[in-house]
Amino acid sequence: MGTSEKIPKLRLNSGHGMPLVGMGTAEFPPVPEKMKSAYLDAIAVGYRHFDTASLYKSEEPLGEAIQEAIKLGLIGSRHELFVTSKLWCNENHPEMVLPSIKNSLRNLKTEYLDLFLIHMPMSVKPGPHSFPIKRDDVVPLNLKGVWEAMEDCQNQGLTKAIGVSNFTTKKLEQLLALAKIPPAVNQVKMNPTWQQQKLKEYCARKGIGITAYSPLGGQSNLSPNPVFTSEVLKKIADAKGKTVAQISLRWLLEQGVIIVVKSFNKERLQQNLDIFDWELTDEERQKISTIPQKKAGTVEFLLSKEGSLNSVDISDIEITE
Ligand code: NAP
User: Fold this and answer.
1) Closest atom, ligand 1, to C-alpha of 119
2) In testing the pocket of ligand 1, which one of 21, 213, 264, 273 has its CB within 8 Å of the most ligand atoms?
């Protein structure tokens, strides 16, 4: 895709258009100079949607990259971009939402977000966060209070839309029962090896957009990446003269979801956008539907081994179903 061609958008229930492919900005450990340079490369090859979060420490380098892109004339202004950020669990408390978005805006050197998400359906004691999350620090989430504060952020013009991430259908049901503004998006792990059919159908019925994270299986080196090691995807890629990454991304696009994909390599950034002018055949789609499913990490993966959940039932903070 050349820089003059635009990435198509999905219309959210908030009325705003969200580019169907965005750049994932997370890399651990974060290296600000490397990040800034990758974000600039992304703008240069045509990305106009960026997925950041206070957790990733990518807001500041992204803010700098945006300023520099304007100076270099790669974009006319920040308004040409769609920027998502997220509220981490240690700020998942009603009175901390407004200060948190203001801090994200300062980091990003912008006056508004396009989308602000609750990062996890979980709240931990305020203060410095640790990873894994200490079990003893998990406290009940005041979903009603936090969502009202999220709605406030939208009503004050600090963000154009609000949403959630890692919410199960059960959690979305609770949220929809109390929301004045329904979530525009639920950002969850999704790729051909974790297809999320139940959640996808539920969100479609309720008018909630899905953003797929880890569309290439994610960055963990702990186990073989299920996407890149899939024989089905490899065969389809070879037959079509595409890469496995492109097959995975094209499949997601055809599911009607938005994708946030991370690469800090200019050639792969470009490759990941070259998915709009071709399609999978019915036979290929059928083969992909038979790929064995590898369930995305449960909340256990995020929690410390020691300690205990004192005031919360694990089923209430589950992030995958
Ligand atoms: P991903 O997009 O699935 O990417 C995984 C790895 O694939 C990257 O490290 C990248 O390495 C490599 N890659 C990218 N394009 C490639 C290609 N064409 N061929 C071969 N390898 C390629 O992983 P992710 O970072 O987990 O997910 C994307 C974004 O989703 C994150 O950055 C973040 O913004 C968001 N996210 C959100 C949550 C949440 O809880 N809401 C959780 C996880 C992620 P190189 O950089 O070396 O290319």
Assistant:
1) 41
2) 213
Task: Assess contact for 158 and 179: CB atoms under 8 A.
Answer: no
Ligand 1 site-directed mutation target among 41, 85, 216, most atoms within 8 Å of CB: 216
Q: Report how far residue 226's alpha carbon sits from residue 190's, in angstroms, rounded to the nearest whole number.
A: 12
Q: Which of 39, 47, 56, 213 is catalytic?
A: 56
**What are the pLDDT digits (tens) for 94-126?**
999 999 999 999 999 999 999 999 999 999 999
Rounded distance, CA 82 to CA 113, Å?
Answer: 8
Answer yes or no: is 119 a known binding residue: yes
| pLDDT-based confidence at residue 5 (cuts at 50, 70, 90) | low
**CA 31 and chain centroid, separation:** 20
251 Cβ inside 6 Å of ligand 1: no
56 is catalytic: yes
Q: What is the rounded CA–CA span in Å between residue 20 and residue 82?
A: 11
List pLDDT tens digits, range 197-225: 999 999 999 999 999 999 999 997 667 89
Is the separation of the CB atoms in 144 and 150 below 8 Å? no
CB distance 243 to ligand 1 below 6 Å:
yes
Alpha carbon of 218 to ligand 1 centroid (Å): 5
